[in-house]
Amino acid sequence: MNDKLYIFDTTLRDGEQVPGCQLNTIEKIEIAKHLEALGVDIIECGFPISSPGDFKSVTEVSKVVTESRICALSRAVEKDIETAADALHYARLKRIHTGIGTSDYHIKYKFKSTREEVLERAVAAVKYARKFVDDVEFYAEDAGRSDNDYLARVVEAVIAAGATVVNIPDTTGYCFPAEYGEKIAYLMNHVKGVEHAIISTHCHNDLGMATANTLAGVMAGARQAEVTINGIGERAGNTALEEVVMAIRSRREFPVYTDIKAKNITKISHQVSSMMRMPVQPNKAIVGRNAFAHSSGIHQDGVLKNRESYEIIDPTDIGLEDSVIALTARSGRAALDHHLHRLGITLSQQELAIAYEKFLRLADSKKDIDDADLYEIAGVAEGNIRQKIALKYLQVVCGKNAIPMATVTLEIDGEECTHTSSGIGPIDAAFSAVKALVHRKINLEEMLIQSINGGTNDIGKVHIQIENKGTIYYGFATNRDIVTATVEAFIGAISKIL
Ligand code: KIV
Ligand code: ZN
Asked: Of all atoms in ligand 1, which is nearest to the CA of residue 97?
């Protein structure tokens, strides 16, 4: 029987330390409830001494989350520990996470102290925290660069002092997988009483090794993994929850299981990305927009014959509807035929060959082949061509102390219609006007605005994902006017629904 690997999520603490990603208490509660529904065992939701906002978030999350354990961070300082305990007052299941740096970099330069003094402070902090809660996790900050002998002494001492979990952070993302695995194995083999505590991984991604290091730690005996949704976190981020969970599910050799309900992964990834204003890179493992998209003809043909030819995870396992067979100039006939079938169009081999020639010509000049193009390529009667929608006019008013307003004129199926809306910014106002004109409930799932070379006359590229009745639609546009590009990308995505 495999052991359970406890999933400790720190999106709301380590993840939230990213500049620009700060959340208010209401947003933290919302994400915490989704983490609980995902099946996360421990939610670290703040560092209460650091700010009144963090204190309040830990308190409020403690009132509403009952299934997951709520954890609060502190330094090895009595006042920090007391504040963490106060903030956790309402939690049904609670944990204080206290600790101190154990590498010589931290001991000599940060604390101007000695190994012996740091060891004493570690023990004192754990004993003090145990006065308030039964569950105390100790972190040995910069354990990745700490001397293994000394680290083992610290771990042994804090377990004897009452630590229930000992966290071995690779704070600077310095370790290689074999090295981090050996560090955990060393502790498992040399620490007396190690069986009385759970050893935890906490890896940062500075060298792109966070997931590999976490899995090496698990193979060596760690039974808790500290992770964040989408791998969000300081600098290059933390270990991504979705990568660890799906690696364990996909490869049977792991001696552990998790209680994560993987079907919720896609949804929570979108929520965290939009609430924390952190777009997910398109090629991000598991949750990137292209993680299940196939664009070359050989791969598409293989996936259409048998999904497993080019996919190791079934996209429905993480809550997606299906893989994406992208239509590009590199797509083959099988992909075109697949999309025509999706639209209810069946062509003979000869008709398909003609349609494919037309498709290749169009795909060479147009990046995004949409359903209307497919109807045209297949030569289906005009009446069957989907509704067309085009942006005819856009004017926005915005600026300091101005009320943002947008007037939008769309041509929908040959008819022009205009609407004016206000919003919290020009894009919000323009989107409201577009939604009023198309009469649809549309949820914006992701919006990524990029410049090409950074000048003020630069071309803006906008990627947008929207959701309608559970299906995700994608839009893309470029323009020197960034608001126009954004509205065009939005309309491009909507036209796929209509
Ligand atoms: O990376 C780290 O060392 C941390 C600790 C505070 C747990 O986040
Ligand atoms: Zn960290």
From this structure: 7
Mean pLDDT score, 31-48: 98
The string of pLDDT tens digits covering residues 431-481 is: 999 999 988 888 888 888 877 666 777 777 788 888 887 777 878 777 888
**What b/e string do you get for 220-241 counting C-beta neighbours within 10 Å, with b at 16 or more?**
bbbbbbbbbbbbbbbeebbbbb
Cβ neighbors of 142 (< 8 A, separation 6 or more) are: 101, 102, 103, 105, 106, 169, 171, 172
Contacts of 418 (CB under 8 A, 6+ apart): 393, 407, 408, 409, 410, 437
Query: What's the 173 CA to ligand 2 centre distance in angstroms?
Result: 9
Which listed ligand is nearest to 101 at the C-alpha?
1
The answer, as to whether pTM is greater than 0.85, is no
pLDDT average, residue stretch 304-319: 93
Pocket-testing residue among 167, 168, 203, 228, ligand 1, by greatest number of atoms within 8 A of Cβ:
167
Could you tell me if 227 and 10 are in contact, meaning their C-beta atoms sit under 8 angstroms apart?
yes
Using the predicted structure, report yes or no on whether residue 253 has a pLDDT greater than 90.
no
